[in-house]
Amino acid sequence: MTVTGHRWNSAADYDVLARRVQFRNAELVAGLHPRPTEPRTVYEIGCGTGALTEALVHRLPSARIDAVDVSDDMLAVAARKDWPDRVRFTQGAFPDVTTDRRYDAVFSNAALHWMHPRFAEVFTTMNALLVDGGLACVATAGRTAATDRFAEQSQAALSRLTGLSEPDPFEARRLTVAGAEELAGAAGFAVQDAFLLERTVSVPAEVRARWWVASGGPWTAAQVPVQDAVDALCSVLGEGEVELVHASVFLRLRKEEHA
Ligand SMILES: C[S@@+](CC[C@H](N)C(=O)[O-])C[C@H]1O[C@@H](n2cnc3c(N)ncnc32)[C@H](O)[C@@H]1O
């Protein structure tokens, strides 16, 4: 198994590791909608193996959910699970996927950061997908002092692995609350809620390293075998338990109604 271009080859690893962190994040994103019985049509961006989709199925009893993801690998893992008829998965790259449909709500967990540097277009397209007054409820990678510290460690591992001296490409994808609010306002949203949540879990160093690879890691660098990437990060993390810091910016945005 290798980390190659724009694919998510660690989909099975991701699905297992995601249970530690991402499923709880997904519950929080699903809970951002204040009136869960209202949405009839929902669009989900970057559904992956279905963590948020699952939370939406339980929380939004009346919603038809159109979920899109760019990765066949992630969608294949999602497809092996049981879903009600009101869920439909489609392969496609946001914001390039087009549809004439308008939705009552748009949701996304841990996916928008992969669309960097096209953030302005991503927020504008989310806005265009919504009916007037519709809500976008999303979480995307956040930046804190702890994520900066981890970036230093992963940069050391990354340059050892690839011979490249550029910083971990993931770091440019992180948003602060102020940065996210600015993007939202420029795209025609009223910000109803915006906050950053940093959570810390203690895990064995190898689990931390596997999470790094499964959730992106050096995937945009040269082709690197997964175990080499894990070993390289472990060599800078040390042995035993380490902190897995997960920082996300959460947003609830309302599409402004036309006069
Ligand atoms: C960290 S995973 C999150 C998956 C899921 N939302 C969850 O909560 O576990 C990020 C997902 O975004 C997808 N992704 C990345 N870029 C994308 C794009 N341009 N359009 C759609 N999906 C994308 C990846 O394939 C991956 O499945």
TrEMBL record:
Q: Which UniProt keywords apply?
A: Methyltransferase, Transferase, Ubiquinone
- What is a biological process (GO) this protein takes part in? methylation
Keyword field contains Transmembrane helix: no
**What Gene Ontology terms describe what this protein does at the molecular function level?**
methyltransferase activity
The record's annotation in Pfam families points to: Methyltransf_25
Q: Which InterPro entries match?
A: Methyltransf_25 (IPR041698), SAM-dependent_MTases_sf (IPR029063)
Q: Which residues form the Methyltransferase domain?
A: 42-134
Name the record gives this protein: Ubiquinone/menaquinone biosynthesis C-methylase UbiE
Which species is the source of this protein?
A: Saccharothrix ecbatanensis
